[in-house]
Write a structure and sequence with these properties.
The chain is α+β, with helices and mostly antiparallel strands. The protein has 4 helices and 3 strands. The protein has helices at residues 6-13, 19-22, 25-28, 63-75, and strands at 38-43, 56-61, 90-91. Strands 2-1-3 form a 3-stranded antiparallel beta sheet. The longest helix is centred in the C-terminal third of the chain and has 13 residues, at 63-75. The chain starts with 5 loop residues before the first helix and ends with a strand.
Amino acid sequence: MGQCQIQSASRHAFPRGLTSVEDRRMSLDANCREEATYSVKLGGTTAGKSRQGAAVKEFFVCENHGQLLTQVDGELPEEGWSPSLAGRPQPLA
């Protein structure tokens, strides 16, 4: 598998301005060179805070960023958003 795709995943799933996201923006925008170990499916931000009808895309991320995505996703409802995860992160075989 290739490198972690955290930058693309972050741009797709997390809007700017949310406290939970901005507090971790440096980690989310990192150009990670770690090997991808998880597959995550994330809903986009284009359909409003409920994400209803938003495009779901699959990204490959490293273990650390997989945990970070899960953590941020758990905090999104505090700011009025529905979660972005469209399924639990799956280990790559």
